[in-house]
Amino acid sequence: MLTKAFIPYKGYFSTPFSRWQGSMANENSILLAGNTAKRWLHEKSWDPGMFDYLVFGNTIGQLHQFYASPWAAALMGAGDIAAVAVSQACTTSTTCIYQAAAGVETGVYQNCCTLMTDRCSNGPHTVWPNPMGPGGEVISENWLMDNFNSDPNVGLRMIETAENVAKEANFTKEQCDELSLRRYEQYLDALKDDRAFQKQYMFPAEVKISRKKTKLVEEDEGIMPTTQEGLAGLKPVIPGGVLSFGAQTHPADGNCLVVVTTEEKAKELSADPTIPIQIVSYGFSRTKPGYMAAAPVPATQMALENAGLTIQDIKTIKTHNPFVVNDLNFALKMGIDPMGTESQGFNNYGSSMIYGHPQGPTAGRLIIEGLEEIAMKGGGYFLWTGCAAGDTGGAMIFKVG
After folding, report:
1. CB 263 within 8 A of CB 110
2. Which pTM value belongs to this model?
3. Fold topology of 158-197+275-400
4. 132/136 Cα distance (integer angstroms)
5. Which residue in 160, 181, 202, 218 is a FRET match for 3, CA 20 to 30 A apart?
6. From the centroid of its chain, how far is CA 396?
7. Buried b or exposed e, range 15-45, using 16+ CB within 10 angstroms
8. CATH of span 12-124+205-219+248-269
9. pLDDT tens sequence across 301-335
């Protein structure tokens, strides 16, 4: 359990997410994240020099990846601080935030910046030497698609691991379609009143459209309109399975930032010092091989135990749900309503299944949305949880107010 690590209220942002090959497709994600952070800090009139460390997260290699973390620090205007790069697929943001929190807890950092980014678009194609191969033929890899489509440990596509969980729990396509529609409708709530909820935390990304022209990406791109009839008409991706394309996420591009600091500094930086945000606990897991969608449950159980809480103590839940099976399984195993209730929100205002997952910043955006939601509710405990490549999972609990 953590007691000393805090996040300033409004000490965070997420850009919109763009479906791959959209407006951010040609931007180096390291460069875009650093420049976006610099613009955000300038708008808040915060000196980048106030940070004593940067925890930088990304998972898809970019040009100059070797220098990713110190370069990002320099780009955002904090070129004199040290930095580290973290990569843990879709739990990258959570691990970055926890590393910062652990540093604050132990006194290593006083004011730490976490910056997470990724670009699934135009992923790198890597080539590995193979001198013993026929004619010295190289080994090649599409960084994104080859890894989405085969975990080398189990030889399965990610969707196959979700189907394994669905089969074990006897979930039906009808259940998947029903909850997928619910998740889409929850996202639409974030667009009401001229995107009032999203505007509480979202910061535009500035991208190049020519040598001399730029544009601001101010809204999510590539959201697929969803109806009950449309979902019912989609066939399962895997014959005999339960998951259609409407019940899973899509690759995307974007970035986010979260400040992690001491209680005193959080009050100083907070947009409202009466809304403290404490990082309470962290959990992680690795479930049985080939069952990635089940990993959030043991990670959550660990985080709850570390915090001395039960799932009934949690007022808001946000999940990284690349497949809707993740949420069905989580609700079944934790004994809660997958649709959410008035007293316990479950993916209100959106989730990665709907707006995509750039991996690095995915959990960060979800965490930011959860913090905003629970602050609107007057405070309480908030849980983020999600799975990651290799049948792993993460979870983090926050106390707001």
Report:
1. no
2. 0.98
3. Peroxisomal Thiolase; Chain A, domain 1 (3.40.47)
4. 6
5. 202
6. 12
7. bbbbbbebbbeebbbbbbbbbbbbbbbeeee
8. 3.40.47.10
9. 999 999 999 999 999 999 999 999 999 999 999 99
